[in-house]
Design a protein that fits this description.
This protein is mainly beta and 152 residues long. It has one helix at 2-22, and strands at residues 36-40, 42-46, 63-68, 71-79, 84-91, 94-97, 99-104, 109-116, 123-131, 136-146. The longest helix has 21 residues, at 2-22.
């Protein structure tokens, strides 16, 4: 009985070691993303909770990541672009306008670019929304959470 129990424990331990040894390493644990273009899934969270913001529906997925010399720039496409009059991200303690990379007026979309320190950190942002047809204007704090494991 002791031999069977010892063998079972050894096999169980070996299985766990093998499982972790063969598990894929996610991009989050990779030291640095290679220079070039990648993509990553992300979600737009509310400012005060890790729950999905209504604004999430106005951001196309996935984000494009441009990496150069270890620095990451994220490019996201805003839908209903005419409603989103301002999009700023927090950089070094200051909210800065994201750089507009492209605009497609016919499709009512625009792509913006901003710096990302790490894909494991949440990116605070601010959006201003104006919907003239209903006389609505609002300013919102949001957060972008990238899924580092989804990087391709």
């Amino acid at each position: 009985m002791k031999v069977i129990r010892s063998t079972s424990h050894a096999l169980l331990l070996f299985s766990f070691v093998l499982l972790f040894a063969l598990a894929p390493i996610s991009s989050a644990s990779a030291a640095v993303l290679a220079d070039g273009q990648h993509s990553a899934q992300y979600v737009v969270w509310k400012a005060d909770s890790d729950s999905t913001s209504t604004a999430n529906t106005y951001f196309e997925k996935p984000a494009k990541l441009v990496v150069k010399d270890g620095k990451i720039k994220a490019q996201v496409t805003l839908t209903n672009s005419s409603w989103i009059t301002s999009f700023k991200t927090l950089e070094q303690g200051v909210y800065k306008n994201a750089k507009v990379i492209s605009t497609n007026t016919a499709a009512n979309k625009r792509t913006v670019e901003f710096n990302v320190n790490s894909l494991t950190e949440v990116v605070p942002a601010k959006v201003s929304v104006t919907v003239p047809a209903i006389g609505y204007t609002g300013n919102y704090d949001i957060r972008l959470k990238f899924d580092a494991a989804s990087v391709q």
